[in-house]
Amino acid sequence: MDRARLAELHGVATSYEPAPGSVVRVPEDTLVAVLAALGVDASTPRAVRDALAAREQAERGRLLPPAVVLRGHAGGPPPLPEGTALSVETEDGATIPWNAEPLPYGGHVLRARTPDGRSASAPLIVAPERLPAPPERGHGFLVQLYSLLSARSWGMGDLGDLADLAAWAGRSAGSDFLQINPLHAAVPGPPTDPSPYRPSSRRFPDPVHLRVEEIPEFAYLTGAAREEVEALLARAAVLREAVLRHDALIDRDAVWELKRRALELLRAVPATPGRRAAYAAFLAEGGQALDDHSTWCALAEAHGPDWRSWPAGLRDPRSARTARARGELLDRVDFHCWLAWLTDGQLAAAQRAAREAGMRVGLVHDLAVGVHPSGADAWAQQDAFAAGMSIGAPPDAFSPHGQDWGLPPWRPDALAATGYAPYRDLLRGLLRHAGALRVDHVMGLFRLWWVPRGHEPRRGAYVRYDAEAMLGVLALEAHRAGAAVIGEDLGTVEPGVREALAERGVLGTSVLWFERDYENAASGEADPEPLPPERWREACLATATTHDLPSTAARLTGDHVALRHRLGLLTRPLAVEQREDAADVARWLAALGRLGLLPEGPGDEEAAVLAVHRFLLRTPARLVGIWLPDAVGDRRPQNLPGTWDQYPNWRLPVADASGRPLSLEELVASPRLQALVDEVRWWGGRS
């Protein structure tokens, strides 16, 4: 009982409910391991008693909580002894009384002094009640940037392609947003993990996305450097044509090998005074975070991409040995700072292109749920991460053994102690050139499933975060950026979470095939009828599919079942899966027909895809997202969960219904895409 009480005091759940009425106890050794990752020894009864006593003594002696979060400009102070004087040191250095009206939004410091002379301070976050909403109801495209190659790409989609697609979508399709995959910096290979959801750093974008020819210094290459870059361009064309014309997979490492050499040549070109001044300003703004990231990149070149295997002194970013190594590798550190600056500039140009094309939101960036344990963020922010822990999910109907995602979680106590500075800085960087932000696994703002190293995923435990603080920081940074936030809230969601998100203005994610009329379903009915469009929630991004799900064409034709069968992923006989899948599709097609959304009649796959999107447009959803591969009939998923080398996850270009890869130029000229664009433009009244 004492250990359970200790766990509760530290936000560690001792049980969970995989289904209503079913309670599973967390194993004792899991509780011990999770508490140890939070700096609490619970290994023996004596250790538990000592930890409880220490916690209770700390609470009795504490004037202020670790962090104070207020909604709106005003709020009540935490409980304090009578006569305690409170003041606020604002983030701009001013000191104002606690009862100042209004308290400014921002990250401040609350100071308290009691009549008997005791004093304390705590981070104070003052955040808006609600996050910004999209300016108006609108539609847009969802795409994985690497999969979108143009005639100018170096073997994978880049930021030049992003700007070009945004300009086309805004002007020709009347789109209001363009949602892309995380562009976070990857752990370098070879081979580089192609998943954008296991990055080295979420704080900085990956320079592999740069359009080299659009860097100003490119025009001033001369002599042997110009000849070498021309040769690199020729090799890049071979990579591009291999993907678009010869069924090759996207090879991120091959692309980066060429770009890195070209960038090294460009760096030797003298910059103009204005460019030098802009770079200096970027370095000053980036500060310690940029220095740490670039130092890790330089050290990874010298010692390999896993900092945990580096020489002991280099594993500490603040050690004297790391400082010496930074000096010895100063040129490479500066090279990686320069790459971050270039990438930031091209991201800004892409968002500018989107807004100039008439998009009311523009780019929607994606925040992955965590970082790779060997990467730059895990090295630079070791105090903020829980050592020996990994984020995952408990067992459910789709993953009976649970899931281990291999990503270290943030420590909630460390976040609070810093006033949520790592989280605030992360959000500020991502929102820098964004009209909105998608938060992957947004339920993680409330709790995360921690799996101790060496344990099976099912032997984990939920650890709770201060959702009021996490949402408050999110609201503050979104308010500052004027950006909306879309939460990916698919799958198992704790009761009350969707309501709490909606209350703060976070949009949800609604995928057509999952929206069912459970309210009017018969008892025990596994797959109720489709939810009528008028009953969908308004505060959401409505879409037909995502990067982790089958494309709409694959769903309608049953190709996704055949694919899983070929890969040995089905747990039931193929005939059973096909029969149930066909019945579900027939149910949806019947619903579309009853609503008059399928005038072409059954049997026409392209017409059915149009009908699905007509349905989405009938809902009150604030945003309607079109998975770009759906617009040309692509049948292949970008990612097939549960596979690693059996399927080319994150390495496929956008293709048409026959599987033929399409360049950006071919894609926008597609009659099939144009037919869908005509539908959404008519709906939006933007001719």
Automatic annotation (TrEMBL):
InterPro entries on file: GH, Glyco_hydro_77
Keyword Glycosyltransferase set for record: yes
Reactions the enzyme catalyzes: Transfers a segment of a (1->4)-alpha-D-glucan to a new position in an acceptor, which may be glucose or a (1->4)-alpha-D-glucan
Gene Ontology MF terms in the entry: 4-alpha-glucanotransferase activity
Record has Glycosyltransferase as a keyword: yes
Broad class of enzyme this protein falls into: transferase
Keywords, sorted A to Z: Carbohydrate metabolism, Glycosyltransferase, Transferase
Transmembrane regions: none
E.C. no: 2.4.1.25
Family assignment from sequence similarity: Belongs to the disproportionating enzyme family.
Listed name of the protein: 4-alpha-glucanotransferase
